[in-house]
């Protein structure tokens, strides 16, 4: 026959020691068990001051919305960087409504004055800026940009402005980083990291995708790159891939052959720049 024994309560000191041991075990486990989520190790890891910038016309609405939806799904829906829309004339209410509805980020709309901004950054001795027709501008016309609707001189000035000086606009002085988005650009792959943070943390000031060039553009670009590298060989990074800029592929052939296979995957150029004109 089983005999029952009276349960004797533990002394208060033992109860306190047991609770302390349990607490210590929980703290130890939380510090040693691997977490599937990345941890922020930098105390000063603040969000970069960055924006997605585009020069848009009213007729760019459809291709621009396509680019916005793709980029939001692939990247910006997680980081919510501002969109800044420059235009040569006030954009319609429908344009603003549809573009602002395509993102949860802040949208800024700014008018570029054709008579001031593009002309202010011209080089005096540049034949393009002096109104002389260039073979490049005649061949490199884009069906989705303003060359069809803008006068040739104005279009060249805007394209020049869109390739760099836009970063000096007062509207952008609150940003340090810029990603220039062309209406119609395709973003078919998920971008699983913050591009601006990566560039900032690795001291990368500029990056670009491999663009879709015409044979004449390729020839002119290759010539300019070769001249620059001959003059400044110390500026070429040891790991830089410049073969495609020099007009050569890996096997020494003209890069035009290998570029043909890339054209279907590269409908536009997306450029990311940091501290661009804010020095």
Outline the low-pLDDT stretches.
29-41, 116-149, 250-279
Extended strand count: 6
- Give the CATH superfamily of the domain at 50-212 and 268-274: Spore Coat Polysaccharide Biosynthesis Protein SpsA, Chain A
Please write the string of helix (H) and strand (E) elements: HEHEHEHHHEHEHHE
Portion in helices: 25-40%
Query: Helix/strand-derived class?
Result: alpha/beta
* Separation of the first and last Cα atoms: 92 Å
Determine the strand fraction and express it as a percent band.
5-15%
Protein name: Glycosyltransferase family 15 protein
Region (Disordered): 123-152, 255-279
GO molecular function: alpha-1,2-mannosyltransferase activity
Signal peptide: 1-35
Features:
single chain, Spore Coat Polysaccharide Biosynthesis Protein SpsA, Chain A, alpha/beta
Task: Give an overview of the whole structure.
It is a single chain. The chain is an alpha/beta fold and 279 residues long. The chain has a domain at 50-212 and 268-274: Alpha-Beta Complex (Spore Coat Polysaccharide Biosynthesis Protein SpsA, Chain A), CATH 3.90.550. It has helices at 12-32, 61-79, 93-101, 117-120, 135-139, 152-162, 195-201, 215-231, 255-263; strands spanning 50-55, 82-87, 107-111, 177-180, 206-208, 271-274. The chain has a six-stranded mixed beta sheet, with helices on one face. It is globular and about 50 Å long. Mean pLDDT is 69; it is low at 29-41, 116-149 and 250-279.
């Amino acid at each position: 026959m089983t005999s029952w024994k009276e349960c004797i309560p533990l002394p208060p000191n033992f109860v306190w020691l047991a609770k302390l041991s349990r607490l210590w075990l929980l703290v130890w486990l939380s510090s040693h068990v691997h977490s599937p989520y990345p941890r922020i190790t930098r105390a000063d890891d603040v969000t970069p001051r960055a924006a997605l910038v585009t020069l848009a016309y009213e007729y760019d609405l459809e291709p621009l919305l396509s680019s916005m939806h793709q980029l939001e799904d692939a990247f910006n829906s997680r980081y919510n960087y501002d969109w800044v829309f420059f235009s040569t004339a006030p954009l319609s209410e429908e344009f603003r409504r549809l573009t602002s509805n395509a993102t949860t980020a802040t949208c800024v709309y700014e008018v570029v004055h054709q008579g001031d901004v593009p002309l202010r950054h011209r080089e005096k001795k540049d034949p393009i800026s002096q109104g002389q027709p260039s073979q490049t501008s005649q061949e490199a016309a884009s069906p989705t940009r303003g060359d069809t609707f803008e006068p040739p001189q104005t279009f060249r000035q805007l394209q020049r402005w869109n390739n760099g000086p836009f970063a000096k606009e007062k509207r952008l002085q609150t940003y340090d980083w810029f990603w220039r988005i062309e209406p119609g650009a395709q973003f078919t792959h998920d971008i699983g990291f913050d591009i601006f943070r990566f560039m900032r943390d690795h001291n990368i000031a500029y990056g670009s995708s491999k663009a879709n060039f015409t044979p004449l553009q390729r020839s002119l670009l290759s010539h300019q790159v070769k001249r620059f590298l001959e003059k400044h060989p110390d500026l070429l990074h040891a790991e830089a891939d410049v073969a495609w800029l020099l007009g050569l592929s890996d096997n020494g052939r003209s890069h035009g052959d290998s570029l043909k296979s890339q054209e279907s995957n590269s409908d536009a150029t997306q450029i990311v720049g940091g501290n661009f004109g804010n020095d």
